[in-house]
Amino acid sequence: MATLNVPPTLSDLSEKNPFRFLPRNTRRVYDVLAEVYPLSTMLFHSDAHKVALSLAGVTDGMKVLEVATGSGEMFRRLLRRNPNGLTCGIDISPNMAARTQRVARRLLPDAVAHCQAVDARNMPFKDGAFDAVVCCYLLELLGEADILQTMSEMRRVLRPNGKLALVLIGQQLPAFNTWYKFIGSLAPAFLGRQVESSIPEVMDSYDFRLEHDQQVRQGCYPSRVVVARR
Ligand SMILES: C[S@@+](CC[C@H](N)C(=O)[O-])C[C@H]1O[C@@H](n2cnc3c(N)ncnc32)[C@H](O)[C@@H]1O
Questions:
Q1: Does the CB atom of residue 96 touch ligand 1 within 6 A?
Q2: Ligand 1: nearest atom to the Cα of 121
Q3: If the chain, 230 residues long, is cut into consecutive pieces of 10 residues, what is the mean pLDDT of each piece?
Q4: How far is CA 171 from the centre of its chain?
Q5: How far from the centroid of its chain's Cα atoms is residue 127's Cα?
Q6: Ligand 1 pocket, 77 CB below 6 A?
Q7: What whole-number distance in Å separates Cα of residue 69 and Cα of residue 113?
Q8: Cα 92 to averaged position of ligand 1 atoms, centre (Å)
Q9: Which of 117, 166, 185, 212 is most buried, by the most CB atoms less than 10 A from its CB?
């Protein structure tokens, strides 16, 4: 593996309250929400998922990983694009991972899908195992050190020249940012906080080469899709 540059100091991601970004709190919350979460995905995330799929370079026969599948809406898009390849998914919430696996098996029984409850900070995959890695709306839920660790893991499991597609909550709408900061403070384990503007610099520090950077708006909900090559 290539030597990495020293990551930047993510001072704008720092959060003084150590309780906010504990993975076990996030896991509990998302475990409880697994059956109703598809509604949230449909209302806020589906347009950005489509853009990410179109830019991620996934073709049939690839080995693809989705990190933080949630209830599996993007995972099924990836499976439909890659019916003869291998599509793996992970989520820290056992209920989310189980739902993703169950629905994928039911709707796409012939595709090869493996979704398991795994923490993105330590993934049980070999170096360079995947042609593409996709990760939507996870980094907002991680503390500063965990963002760096997860980025390092995503880079490790991606083959050289493979593509990483990230979807982040956009920060281009000031009114939305104010609102998100408020509701995020009420439910930090569920909503986290916006980190989008810092992420390209982090990717750069891990030697990713940026290929696409697109803003998407679904109603009043902004997203940013960033695709880079290892
Ligand atoms: C905001 S949801 C996004 C779900 C889905 N990717 C989407 O686009 O709708 C975040 C997901 O990340 C998962 N998650 C949070 N921390 C994680 C971690 N450390 N490792 C893996 N998954 C994690 C949560 O359980 C949840 O399902």
A1: yes
A2: 19
A3: 40 49 84 89 94 97 98 97 97 96 96 96 97 97 92 98 97 94 89 92 94 95 97
A4: 17
A5: 19
A6: no
A7: 12
A8: 7
A9: 166
